[in-house]
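FORM 12-B: Structure-to-Sequence Request
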């Protein structure tokens, strides 16, 4: 590996991270739509607050999408690395999440807690700033789809990069 390759991501790394992020984004968007319909079942509008409100819904959404993404991406990357089908990174290039323990479940739980603690208050704050006290069901379903997509695009690259690091 040349000096340039040892300090930055190669085209193969970027391609792998992008492809994994896109697959996760499609999957998480579909799952978000399904769960949005479940949350909104039997109501005309979904409130920001309350047991079935958007604020409460952010917690399992962020936690579960991050946990499942981490588990799938980490385990697939390990398999592909072992088969020579994914480009390995040195641990020093694991990115902002490369410090996490190697055990996939522990890593997933740490990332899920971290992203939940950071993103849920920011998401609630954004809705408060937009004065979004409730959303009609159709708007909520679209919002959840976009939220799942954006969450995937945010968490996918650093999780995948860390998974490639040895």
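FORM 12-B RESPONSE
SEQUENCE OUT:
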């Amino acid at each position: 590996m040349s000096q340039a390759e040892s300090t930055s991501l190669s085209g193969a790394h970027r391609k792998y991270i992008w492809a994994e992020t896109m697959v996760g984004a499609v999957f998480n968007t579909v799952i978000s739509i399904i769960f949005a319909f479940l949350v909104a079942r039997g109501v005309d509008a979904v409130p920001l607050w309350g047991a079935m409100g958007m604020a409460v819904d952010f917690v399992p959404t962020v936690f579960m999408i991050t946990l499942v993404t981490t588990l799938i991406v980490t385990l697939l990357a390990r398999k592909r690395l072992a088969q020579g089908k994914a480009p390995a990174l040195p641990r020093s290039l694991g990115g902002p999440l490369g410090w996490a323990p190697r055990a996939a479940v522990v890593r997933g739980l740490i990332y899920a807690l971290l992203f939940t603690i950071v993103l849920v208050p920011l998401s609630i704050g954004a809705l408060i700033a937009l004065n979004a006290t409730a959303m009609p069901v159709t708007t909520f379903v679209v919002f959840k789809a976009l939220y799942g997509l954006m969450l995937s695009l945010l968490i996918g690259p650093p999780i995948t990069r860390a998974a490639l690091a040895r």
